[in-house]
Amino acid sequence: MRGFSSLASRASSPAFTNLSKQNRNSLISNTPKPSNLDSVASTSNPSNQQSSSGKPSLNWNSNTSIAAKKGNFRGSVIDQEYFTQILARKDWYLLLNHEYKAKRVTLNQQAVVSILQNQENPLHPFRFYIWVLNICPSFAKNKSVREVLGNALYRKGPLLLSAELVQDIRNSGYVITVDLLCVLIGSWERLGLGKYCADILEQVSYLGLAPSTRLYNAVINALIKCNSLDLAYLKFQQMQVDNCNPDRFTYNILIHGVCKAGVVEEALRLVKQMEGVGYSPNVFTYTILVEGFCNAKRVDEAFELFGVMKSKGIVPNEATVRSLVNGVFRCMPPDKGFELLSRWLEKEPALPSVACSSTLRCLSTNFLPREAAQLLRISIHRGYILDNSTLNIVLTCLIKGLELDDTCQMLDFITVRGVKVSVDIYLALTESLYKAGRVEQGNNYLNQMFTDGLVSNTFFYNRVIDCFCKIKMVDKASDAFKDMLQRGVTPNVVTFNTLIGGYSKVGEVNKVHELLIILLEHGLQPDIFTFSSMIDSLCRVNRIDDALDCFTEMVEWGVAPNAVTYNILIRALCVLGDVGRALKLLRKMQDDGIQADVFSFNALIQSFCRMNKIDEAQRLLVSMLTLDLNPDNHTYAAFIRALCKSGRFDEAKNLFFSMEANGCIPDVLTCKLYLDSIIQSGRTEEAQAVLRECGKRGMLLEPITSS
């Protein structure tokens, strides 16, 4: 490339030779291939594959091949494919027992979980779990393993309890326990099969089981989750027929169901009934009731429940408090909700910190920065410890919604009191200060970040550099890069890509060139982002031939261009008026199997419209629609401008008013463009109507004055 040292020409340099021969080779995947197993579809996790070592395939006519695979269980990497083969066979339990007796399998939680997770057929984890329970009954109490089984049955299921499955378990000599049946019911519940759960409960005797309170609870819970409240009540009434007495879990499940349905009075009746049979409401009962009252917009009664809990010595947990706070904001205007919660927080100083953090989150998501700042001060004064996530959400809201001085005062207020602020907040505030021209103050916060040790590795240096590049303060970005090197922090490709992108946006091609050389000297390989930024920098200074040369070189480097790369070149060619070459590039893009996007077409459509070649632009629009690409405001604006210039105002009007129906809501710029065009044509009444419609949408456009 002219004035831009060719990447290919530097391939002979020592550093580059090392990069091209060694680094490129290191990118070749060395992932071992799975063992070649006959007639079995692989369902193993790629990360757990064994290397291909010439293992014999499983011989279905002989069990001797099992012994030949003796290393499969005890190795650090589990051969998931081998387990899949065993569990797919009718004599699966015999083969598993054979391996266990030969001491070729070690059962621990990690191994059991791995096998359960890596089976494609839901029958296989079910079989394996039953076998494990019979070998090591203690696993029945392992909640983690039981949850993994439930997730496997849900993701790959449903696994229905057919006659064939029941017979298969009987043939193995094992049984389906209540624990196992509850896991199955849980998976059916998540799959929406509540009615099926109820049907199975009617037939538990065929499994050698008797109805129990635990089974009824599992089924009633499944019916509630599947919105079958009537059937849940029917099962509740059948419990006593089967000599099963409802317990606190039963009542809590039903109370949750009726609260979810908005029938709070029935929930209160169930609470009384529960107390009548000797079960007092617990914290979970009250949490459900709080949620129910809020959903029914009976907020005062939700607050009263906290008094009831206090009188009974029940301490609300985080879920109880969170249900109240979220419920208040959900059922009333945010400002009114905050007033109500503020009074409550003043009366209850002993509430957990989640009360303040939940309220702060709600205030921030509803964009009430002043109220959030007020509560944040109170929270800090009370000594509440806020988690980083909440603090980030609140401070982000303050940065966006308050005056910079107020935000800075708040940040100083909390940091002086020992509250640690994340890099994200410092960078967001620093960026806002720099944009406002308050460089010195921005520098102070930046220095504070480094003083607090928040910028100590490549990742955080990249964040700082990216912040400067976004606001086009590339000199500051360069200073951060130099500081990074001086501190011995190693830059990566992301570091260089960020800097190259920043300098390309301000048109400093020479700096881009220098950074490319440093990147290569560090033994790094340019990627798609590097090349796209380089091409963009050349296009910005109208060196289109050099940009096309760079495009060719990236292919020689084995870096495949993407839609962004093509779009940069297409846009640049259109800006220069070379629509012919831009069209050829669009065709090449499609020939290379890269999906063109709306940006690819917009540049060409805008060019044709500027040249008043509306028919050619419309043909491109048809091609665009054929690819299921929806026109955006830029597309419509180009056509509206061209049609108005051609005096085709009725067509422009129809196009403008068809936008929303076609899934594109006109933005301020499109509305202003259309308004200006029809005003110039003397269509004042039509313009007034458009202006009123824009006003309804909250768009502030200049009023139209009659000439």
What is the element layout, followed by pairings?
Layout: H1 14-26, H2 64-68, H3 71-74, H4 80-88, H5 92-101, H6 109-117, H7 123-135, H8 143-156, H9 163-172, H10 178-190, H11 194-202, H12 213-225, H13 229-238, H14 248-260, H15 264-276, H16 283-295, H17 299-311, H18 318-331, H19 334-347, H20 354-365, H21 369-382, H22 388-401, H23 404-416, H24 423-435, H25 439-451, H26 458-470, H27 474-486, H28 493-505, H29 509-521, H30 528-540, H31 544-556, H32 563-575, H33 579-591, H34 598-610, H35 614-626, H36 633-645, H37 649-658, H38 668-680, H39 684-696
Description:
By secondary structure, the protein is an all-alpha fold. The chain is built from 39 helices and no strands. The longest helix has 14 residues. It comes from Datura stramonium. InterPro entries: PPR-containing_protein, PPR_rpt, TPR-like_helical_dom_sf.
